[in-house]
Amino acid sequence: MTASTAEDWVRRFHPAPEAPHRLLCLPHAGGSASYFFPVSRALSPGIEVLAVQYPGRQDRRAEPLIDSIEELADQVTEAIDGFTDRPLAIFGHSMGATLGFEVARRLEKRGTVPAALFASGRRAPSRHRDERFHEGTDDELLANVRSLAGTDQALLGDDEIVRMVLPAIRADYRAAETYRYPDGPDLTCPIFAMVGDDDPKATVDEASSWERHTSGSFELKVFPGGHFYLNEHSPAILDTISTHLNSPSRI
Question: By its UniProt entry, which InterPro entries does this protein fall under (predicted)?
Answer without folding.
Answer: AB_hydrolase_fold (IPR029058), TEII (IPR012223), TesA-like (IPR020802), Thioesterase (IPR001031)
